[in-house]
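Sequence, please.
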């Protein structure tokens, strides 16, 4: 079954890291990307570059950035093919953002 691992960051929650430590963290992200279960992964640019589209009363409204009432922002995703939800959860637990306080949603992909 395929699962989407939605990775959220909490601004300011990351510890101060040296350049060497940050390199190691990016290596951890790469390890999840290169895991045999991972089919696709991407890091998203910041919310300052995002646009939100809504349709209200037949009019399309475009606003700057998402206006979610949360401290966490969606920072990226991994599409994984796992044998079980437990395997997907184990992989999600290895994502550095999760270790640094941000959640990762693990959601099964619905057949269309």
């Amino acid at each position: 079954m395929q699962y989407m691992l939605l990775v959220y960051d909490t601004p300011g929650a990351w510890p101060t890291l040296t350049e060497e430590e940050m390199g190691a963290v990016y290596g951890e992200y790469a390890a999840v990307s290169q895991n045999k279960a991972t089919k696709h992964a991407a890091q998203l640019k910041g919310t300052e570059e995002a646009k939100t589209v809504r349709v209200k009363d037949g009019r399309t409204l475009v606003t700057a950035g998402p206006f979610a009432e949360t401290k966490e922002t969606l920072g990226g995703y991994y599409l994984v093919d796992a044998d079980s939800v437990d395997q997907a959860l184990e992989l999600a637990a290895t994502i550095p953002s999760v270790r640094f306080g941000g959640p990762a949603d693990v959601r099964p992909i619905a057949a269309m």
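The radius of gyration is 16 Å.
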